[in-house]
## 1
Amino acid sequence: MSQIELKNINKSFDGKTILNNISLKVEEGERISLLGPSGCGKTTTLKIIAGLLKNDKGQLLIGDKDVSKVPVEKRGAVIVFQDYLLFPHMTVAENIGFGLKMAKKNKNIIKEKVDELLKLVKLEGLGDRYPDELSGGQKQRVAIARALAVDPKVLLLDEPFSNLDTGLRDEMREFISNLQRKLNITTILVTHDKEEALMISDRIAVMLNGEIKQIDEPSEIYKHPKSIEVANFLGNRNYIKGNIKEGKFETEIGLFNIDNREQKEVIAMINPEDIYLDNSSNEGLEGTITEVRYAGDRIYYKIKIKNKQIRVISNSDKVYRLNEKIFIHMDFNNGVFF
Ligand SMILES: Nc1ncnc2c1ncn2[C@@H]1O[C@H](COP(=O)(O)OP(=O)(O)OP(=O)(O)O)[C@@H](O)[C@H]1O
């Protein structure tokens, strides 16, 4: 039994298709990211799951039950929005207990639950503060605690880390990841940040123009994208056109041996980190360094070979200089062919 299943969900606004046949199964306790650029329909998908928007077509199951007619508060799916939407005139404790108060729970039960959640999100002693007396990370933890107060089956996080600065973002990613694992709560996280999706997801659904283009584990999505559009969204790769013929790959930059006996015209994708630079011998393809960007633990290069720019990411200690002649080695057996 999947915890959530979307079957051919469609949604239009003002006659414009925003979601086009979205299908997705999320297993119990799984953490899945919806990854895509701004405007591709990620938030709309979350709102449909939570019941804040109605889909035009398709079916939505939560725990094997069709929830299309189930109201928001009974779906067992809660959203935490990007800007947290805390009630400014309520204390932290009142914010966290809000859903329970609405459900007319007894005061002692609310207090007990709020105390437990304050402890869980490491905000003990801050229950009497107001939201504007909290840091960004603390506000986010209040929002998470408020969402968890109603014991949801599904947690929906909309760009949870985008309002936090870099250091805090890493800390909160780790905090929420650990909390999610501890509670084993099925989670869908929306992000446009590929590195974030790669780092914290069990699986990633890449969404482009209202369609899910690929659903896979992070390393599969990165290493074996099924299309150039998914590959492009995941990073700056190299694409090299050529013909495979009898174990050789004839390209615009040179001829390579390859373990592939097919005969076809392809575009090969090769990652910048899978290309190696060397100037200790005259072997390999000769090129000229046209850009060097030093980033401490890695160096970004652009290299001109014939009329083609190749991107390389090196983690070697050796730093090559601009305009230096260089030999590059690339193994197309690590490439993906489209
Ligand atoms: N209530 C609405 N009425 C009309 N159009 C809407 C409505 N809500 C969203 N849209 C449009 O639907 C498209 C998808 O919006 P959505 O918020 O789902 O995108 P997103 O992928 O979450 O992007 P972002 O990260 O920028 O929020 C956008 O073009 C948006 O303008």
## 2
Amino acid sequence: MRPILAISGLSKQFGGVTALAGVDLTVEEGEILGVVGPNGSGKTTLFNVVTGVHKPSGGTVLFRGRDITGLAPHAISRTGIGYTFQQAMAFAGLGVLENVQIAGEHARATGGASPWPTPQALLDFVGLSALAGEKAGVLPFGSLRLLGLALALATRPSLLLLDEPAAGLNDRETSALVGLVRQLPGHGITVCVIDHDMKLMQMLCRRLAVLDFGSKIADGPTEAVLADPKVLDVYLGGEL
Ligand SMILES: Nc1ncnc2c1ncn2[C@@H]1O[C@H](COP(=O)(O)OP(=O)(O)OP(=O)(O)O)[C@@H](O)[C@H]1O
């Protein structure tokens, strides 16, 4: 089967800094793939290049076989790639439901039936119905993260990129998030997630790719990757 996302030889220079050094990576339809690596290894840059925030210095990104390399973010979003940010993004002065409505207005026109036909249904899914009328700016941090997930889902992605979705969440909130993300493939949404929390990644991902200094050093079943001496080496004294 053709991968939903196929990244080949992707590189990105920021002046003299090599953030990505020729990364090959595929995301298979229906999986939850984890991308890990030490601070500064290029994970966020990888997402930023895939979503069009940064233009790559070299390489290609194919989404469902279509070359989307270097397209503008709005054009990439319309192909069906959604993403959440490290910082939850919402209009603070608008209501929770209004935020989801607005995000949905920018949804791609070509998607099939959404698993969540209304903004309210999406709020039900992420567990924020009770807060629908609140201003986003007054939400507690955990709820704001869930709103960030709802906003990304409102754009009706078929591939969702999650950048540190559990950062700052407590254990209960993290479990709730894991429960939601695990359901996404069943709703036709493939997931690629970055996080430092290896326990979270073990709960979510059957496959992990590891970046180090902008290069992919491992890619395979989660348990095998976490036992790989090359991976243990880059995390020496670190999170593992
Ligand atoms: N906009 C930018 N301008 C200049 N350098 C950048 C920019 N974005 C990232 N970098 C550099 O590129 C390298 C990779 O950074 P990146 O944020 O992709 O790593 P990361 O793996 O996501 O790190 P972290 O886990 O800390 O979020 C780092 O050396 C970083 O300083």
## 3
Amino acid sequence: MNLFLASTSPRRRELLAQLGLPFTALDVVIDESRRTQEPVASYVERMAKEKAEAGLQMLDDPAGALVLAADTVVALEDELLEKPVSREQAGAMLRSLSGRSHVVMTAFALKTAGCIRVQRVSTTVFFRNVLEREVGWYWETGEQQDKAGGYGIQGRGGLFVSSIVGSYTNVVGLPMAEVVMALREAGLEFVG
Ligand SMILES: Cc1cn([C@H]2C[C@H](O)[C@@H](COP(=O)(O)OP(=O)(O)OP(=O)(O)O)O2)c(=O)[nH]c1=O
């Protein structure tokens, strides 16, 4: 079976590469708009599914292919924090995350020509109080722009995280313990 990763995210590519399994990355771009009143859990699962489907459609020979895709969202109570598009928005996001917890959800989908499996994993992340002078400093690091919630736990954003409950790699973009199990069930073994 040939493994494909339908993702432009460098973090996802690095995480999957750690397994040492050969795979090909596909640059999928889909419409990521959320439907009116679509629950967050349904939205993130639909995004993962649509990315995997779009990935399979890019292949000349989809038979024998296994396409992995994922989507990550940051939920602060009822609000979804997307990728910040400006310095102001990024600063507002960081202030809103300060001194409290939020939930990072990643859904991943594994798709073959015949079937699809979608799984969602949640991690609770606690932020310490973010100082006002750190808000401008963090923007200048350039880390916020391409990340849901406007921070990267794996980078300098980790300086704001006091603790987490749940999977760390889930926050980075791919819950590896669950992905490994799902790949195994699909017939791909990465050790032994
Ligand atoms: C919260 C958080 C998010 N992120 C990233 C993971 C994802 O790449 C991104 C969420 O956006 P996504 O839309 O899930 O993914 P993407 O657009 O980067 O890539 P693709 O759709 O092609 O797979 O935010 C971190 O890297 N670290 C973090 O701590």
## 4
Amino acid sequence: MKILSAKQVHEADNFTIQKYGITSDMLMERAADQVFNWIHSRLQGNPIKIHVFCGIGNNGGDGLAVARMLKEHDYNVVVYVVNYSEKRSKDFLINLDRLKERKLWPEFIDENLHLTSIGKDDVVIDAIFGIGLNRDPEPWVVKVLSHINASGAFVLSVDIPSGLFMEQAPSSEENVIKADVVLSFQTPKLSFFLPETASYLNHWELLDIGLDPEFIYNAPTEYQYIGKPEVAALYRPRLKFSHKGTYGHALIVGGSYGKIGAVQLAAKATLTVGAGLVSTYVPACGYMPLQTALPEVMVITDEQNKQISAVEVPEKVNVICLGMGLGLHDDTKIALTNFLKKNKLPLALDADALNLLSANRQLLKLVPEGSVFTPHPKEFERLVGTWSSDFEKLEKAKKFSAQTKSVLVLKGAHTICFYNGVGYINSTGNPGMATGGSGDVLAGMVTGLIAQGYDVLAASVMATYLHGLSADIAVTTIGYEALTASKIIEGIGAAFVELFKREQPQQQGQQQQERAEQ
Ligand SMILES: NC(=O)C1=CN([C@@H]2O[C@H](COP(=O)(O)OP(=O)(O)OC[C@H]3O[C@@H](n4cnc5c(N)ncnc54)[C@H](O)[C@@H]3O)[C@@H](O)[C@H]2O)[C@H](O)CC1
Ligand SMILES: [K+]
């Protein structure tokens, strides 16, 4: 799903209005109708007090329209207009008149604040600023936002929490509404996915307001949100007359004394995601544990016992994963340097391979184009230096991917794969994955998909999605705490199956019946 910029959303509005011969206030009515239905289906006429805070732009217009619909259904509504500018939008004014026609008179809030108290059991609808926010709110408006935040009431934000920019960090925490739920129109907003800005919302849902799908399809976007349909479309079916050679031969290079388990996890993940053959190259101390734990995997050992001092690549290997548990020994640095000087195969670079590259930057130029880097934020910082905001981090990530002509898999709560100027934001995963070895599993999965013939971008996006999905499935039975990297590998099969699961016919029947009864 594409993530549009504010400018593109406004263009999509205009395009939709012209193509379907509707007016902008009809589009606003659709948006408000969807928000109202969402609330009404949950509150079911509950007389709880609902405070609707509106701005003076179209987000405020949405709020006024929702307030009218709530009033028409006898909800206990109070409406406020946060009067931060005289430049009221046309559709705000239309909806202000419609509200007054229903004898609902908003309270206007200006610099001489008179703030009505909000009970902690009340509901607030936040429609003060939408995606038109282009500067920090004035101090008195911040006081209104703080009053709402301090109330303890359930806050529902329309489209985006007021005060949150689409593509920029707020300058202060108090400038932004903290929303329990955001009902966002048509496409998610980039700020919903970044650690710094996602903290302003607990949960978001999309409401389809019927913006033209053709416009959205053709819009060039810098970010996409990756869900099941996008990943299912990447899947390459296994062929009936195929054999192990059809699915590639991956080599995992890593391990040092005490860290052979990292290679074990990566190799097992590579196999489990479907690679035809998997070999490992490890220090001699890794021989017994690997041969014992993974009978399917071939093991080549270095002449050194505790760390590798060279890299030997067996014939017919078509992708190499490098770095897990590798350590930073001088022997290993020499091994990496000599290897990179002759290697032409695509690489998946993780963990200490990234740390060695950060400490020896001249080696970066030797990484072949079309490789994959899988850093967590600290490893990425070692590669590119610090950043002042998450948005700057994204720019650095995009630049790094362009300079190396490779995929950058920037790991986090929403892992983002960057390639060719586009960031692909993952939708799966959970906090249980913050556990040792889960990164080794991801690198192994990327490698296993490349081995089978997936291109590097498809392999990175799909591996990231399945890795998170496997964990999401696992936590439904074992909870977050008991999730381990090994459990993520065990669930890869279930994640593949889930990718193609359709609704059960019985459930479909039930839903049809429910619809018929409504
Ligand atoms: N396609 C859709 O998604 C639709 C969305 N709708 C709603 O419209 C808003 C966007 O409306 P817009 O009028 O462009 O912006 P705002 O409501 O956010 O109004 C802001 C308004 O105020 C000015 N401004 C910006 N920052 C400040 C500031 N710090 N202080 C004072 N004034 C400021 C700015 O110039 C604007 O004029 C979207 O979020 C949806 O809620 C439509 O209803 C349907 C289609
Ligand atoms: K809002």
